């Protein structure tokens, strides 16, 4: 059981971790060159939540059903699942579409040698993404608080 708890905690940290600093990478005061680096870093980092988050959910459910944690409707269990779902919805439904627009713009050959600030439309997407990352990070903190303070 200890290895399962260890797997759950590590996968949660690794899975949710990039969310806590993604808003630092995605900031509106970037140049086009910096934005290119940021989009590449974000592209690479997105695998961590997909893999780590999935493992954390699976191990969490295994821990719950094989352990003696009480009813599923307890605040810390149900709240954790709801927070995780909300974080996923924010990333999938709100951050990903805006990110795709930025990634598409950055990858256009005619933008390869641009310097300076990106156009206003792209900067608006960056601001939107950053705000949603702050929201996802805040929910992630609440998620960890529920997991740590469970009875």
How does the SSE layout of this entry go?
Blueprint: H1 2-25, H2 32-45, H3 47-66, H4 75-107, H5 120-148
Compose a concise summary of this entry.
The protein is an all-alpha fold. The chain has helices spanning 2-25, 32-45, 47-66, 75-107, 120-148. The two termini are 18 Å apart.
Series of secondary-structure elements, N-terminal to C-terminal: HHHHH
Radius of gyration, whole Å: 18 Å
Largest sheet: none
Low-confidence stretches: none
How many helical elements?
5
- The amount of helix comes to over 70%
Structural class assignment: mainly alpha
Rounded mean pLDDT is: 89
Question: How many DSSP E strands?
Answer: 0
Beta-strand portion reads under 5%
Multimerization state: single chain
Euclidean distance between termini CA atoms? 18 Å
Envelope shape: elongated
Overall description:
This protein is mainly α and 151 residues long. It is built from five helices and no strands. The chain has helices spanning 2-25, 32-45, 47-66, 75-107, 120-148. Helix 1 packs antiparallel against helix 3, helix 1 (2-25) packs antiparallel against helix 5 and helix 2 (32-45) crosses helix 4. The longest helix is centred in the middle third of the chain and has 33 residues, at 75-107. It is elongated, with a radius of gyration of 18 Å.
Features:
single chain; 151 residues; mainly alpha; 0% strand
């Amino acid at each position: 059981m200890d290895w399962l708890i260890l797997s759950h905690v590590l996968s949660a940290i690794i899975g949710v971790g990039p969310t806590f600093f993604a808003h630092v990478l995605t900031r509106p005061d970037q140049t086009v060159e910096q934005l290119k680096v940021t989009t590449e870093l974000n592209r690479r980092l997105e695998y961590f939540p997909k893999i780590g988050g999935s493992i954390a959910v699976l191990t969490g459910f295994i821990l719950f059903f094989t352990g003696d944690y009480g009813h599923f409707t307890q605040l810390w269990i149900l709240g954790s699942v709801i927070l995780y779902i909300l974080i996923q919805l924010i990333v999938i439904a709100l951050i990903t579409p805006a990110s795709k627009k930025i990634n598409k713009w950055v990858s256009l050959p005619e933008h390869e040698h641009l310097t300076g600030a990106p156009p206003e439309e792209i900067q608006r997407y960056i601001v939107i993404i950053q705000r949603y990352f702050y929201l996802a990070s805040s929910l992630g903190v609440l998620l960890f608080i529920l997991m740590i303070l469970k009875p």
